[in-house]
Automatic annotation (TrEMBL), chain A:
Function of the molecule: Also displays a weak uracil phosphoribosyltransferase activity which is not physiologically significant.
The organism of origin for this protein: Candidatus Schekmanbacteria bacterium GWA2_38_11
Protein's name according to its UniProt entry: Bifunctional protein PyrR
BP terms from Gene Ontology: regulation of DNA-templated transcription
Signal sequence extent: none
Automatic annotation (TrEMBL), chain B:
Domain Aspartate/ornithine carbamoyltransferase Asp/Orn-binding span(s) in chain numbering: 156-302
UniProt source species: Candidatus Schekmanbacteria bacterium GWA2_38_11
Similarity remark: Belongs to the aspartate/ornithine carbamoyltransferase superfamily. ATCase family.
Keywords: Pyrimidine biosynthesis, Transferase
Name of the protein this chain belongs to: Aspartate carbamoyltransferase
EC number: 2.1.3.2
InterPro entries linked: Asp/Orn_carbamoyltranf_P-bd, Asp/Orn_carbamoylTrfase, Asp/Orn_carbamoylTrfase_sf, Asp_carbamoyltransf, Asp_carbamoyltransf_Asp/Orn-bd
Enzymatic class: transferase
Binding-site list for L-aspartate: 86, 169, 223
Gene: pyrB
């Protein structure tokens, strides 16, 4: 699947500002970092999670627990599509029970990834709250799922592609709109 | 990422890439067994049947737990109490199980090639859980997983496989798997229990365990398969044990980080002295733990997402 870039939606400064704002909103909603834990969805959600955790540490001077969830085992299309990403580890080195979990992903689209991530977390315990933070909400939901913290809302059509590029994986921070090469 | 095979009949059919895919997947699945609730919904609604024509505790329990931890339904058929005792043929039994629409049949059979016979005539995926003296692929995969976990690599390691090579399907699968991933394998045992011309598989042969121990990174001890040995292949159990058994005296010259493995069940005091079996070099129980993760990976990769048209075997 080739990706043809149409235009840049967010540059590196906008990405940085969005992450900063999300961090402040999380802390405001939670009234600080007490009982807070962050869980990133592989792959780019993990990078965002680490950055948010660092910002929380800068602001509140506390380290919040950080985990990684791989949703592959909870997908609703196993056996239906052929190209799955490589199954990777879920690494949540703390008890989720009674914590306020902020689930972090780069793009919120159909909502199916979030559904799978919620099931994965619930299998590990009973959090007090689960909230959702995403860098981009591109609409087109197929399930009744909504984010609590959104970096930028970008209404798109189903055919368009949104690509979030982050320094840790792509060497640059930006969000681009594109389409699939026919 | 997916396995380009419909069945797991033997390691011989797999590429190094296939083996690494299974090991990497198993590494991710190992975490599930450490949870309080040891279950993920991945294979919900899929049915796995185990069909064992030979005794087994470890392998069958391990496959059953693997299937259950992935939420598949599993039915176990022990042939000693089934219609097989009334004279039903393997193919007929297979066809009847197929008619109940399972997704995977896991078979163990005393005759080499039995899983392949099923694979040729049945629709469900077939997993070989040991056939005669042919192959035992899931055992080799869990051996490699354990070695990789301990040594962080396979390539370049020196591995000794000691004992009854002739009757051992584990040895054959291990030889294929280790060679494909670049380890060098030395077989050790009495000449009567090492097949002639086995060097053609790319292995070395030695008749003196003491010579091989100092250079080995891994020693895989095999069980003397008394149930398969029909002629006098060695003078006595005691003599075998003295020459080819592993004890702490012989391990004095071993590398510090040598690991000792055994596919189980152990004949304590014959091929393995209790001091070694329970000692610091032994990773035998870790093999058992890892077996579940590796078998979960096999079931997941055989059932998880792929198209019929792309399958080879």
């Amino acid at each position: 699947m080739a990706f043809i870039e149409k235009r840049e939606l967010l540059n590196s400064q906008s990405v940085e500002r969005a992450i900063t704002r999300i961090t402040h909103e999380i802390l405001e909603k939670n009234k600080g970092a007490l009982n807070l834990a962050l869980i990133g969805i592989r792959t780019r959600g993990v990078f965002l999670t680490k950055r948010i955790a660092q910002k929380i540490e800068d602001i509140e001077k506390v380290k919040v627990p950080v985990g990684i969830v791989d949703i592959t085992l909870y997908r609703d299309d196993i056996g239906r599509t052929e190209a799955h990403p490589m199954l990777q580890k879920t690494e949540i080195p703390f008890s989720v029970t009674d914590k306020t979990i902020v689930l972090v992903d780069d793009v919120l689209f159909t909502g199916r990834t979030i559904r799978a991530a919620l099931d994965a977390i619930m299998d590990l315990g009973r959090p007090r709250f689960v909230r959702l933070a995403v860098l981009i909400d591109r609409g087109n939901r197929e399930l009744p799922i909504q984010a609590n913290f959104v970096g930028r809302e970008l209404p798109t059509t189903r055919e368009e592609l949104i690509q979030v590029q982050l320094m840790e994986a792509d060497g640059i921070d930006r969000v681009v709109l594109g389409e699939e090469k026919k | 990422m997916r396995l380009r095979h419909k069945n797991l009949l033997g390691i011989k059919d797999l590429t190094a890439e296939d083996i690494n895919l299974i090991l990497d997947t198993a590494e991710s699945l190992k975490e599930v067994s450490t949870r309080d609730i040891k279950k993920v919904p991945t294979l919900r609604g899929r049915t796995v049947v185990t069909l064992f024509y030979e005794a087994s505790t470890r392998t069958r329990t391990s496959f059953e737990l693997a299937a259950k931890r992935l939420s598949a339904d599993i039915i176990s058929i022990a042939t000693s109490i089934s219609s097989v005792t009334k004279g039903e043929t393997l193919k007929d039994t297979g066809k009847n199980i197929e008619a109940m629409n399972p997704d995977i049949i896991i078979i163990r059979h005393p005759h080499s090639g039995a899983p392949e016979i099923l694979a040729r005539s049945l629709r469900p995926a077939i997993v070989n859980a040991g056939d005669g003296a042919h192959e035992h692929p899931s055992q080799a995969l869990l051996d490699l997983f354990t070695i990789r976990e301990k040594k962080k690599r396979i390539a370049g390691l020196k591995v000794a496989i000691v004992g009854d090579i002739t009757h051992s399907r584990v040895a054959r699968s291990d030889i294929y798997a280790l060679s494909k991933l670049g380890a060098s394998v030395t077989l050790v045992g009495p000449a009567t229990l090492i097949p002639v011309e086995i060097e053609k598989m790319g292995v070395k042969v030695s008749y003196r365990l003491e010579d091989v121990i100092p250079e080995s990174d891994v020693i895989i001890m095999l069980r003397i398969q008394l149930e398969r040995i029909t002629q006098n292949l060695f003078p006595s159990i005691r003599e075998y044990s003295r020459i080819f058994g592993l004890n702490s005296e012989k391990l004095k010259n071993a590398k510090k980080d040598l690991i000792v493995m055994h596919p189980g069940p152990i004949n304590r005091g014959i091929e393995l002295d209790p001091e070694v079996a329970d000692g610091p070099h032994s990773v035998i129980l870790e093999q058992v733990t890892n077996g579940i993760a590796v078998r979960m990976a096999v079931l997941y990769l055989l059932l998880g997402g792929k198209e019929e048209s792309e399958l080879t075997n």
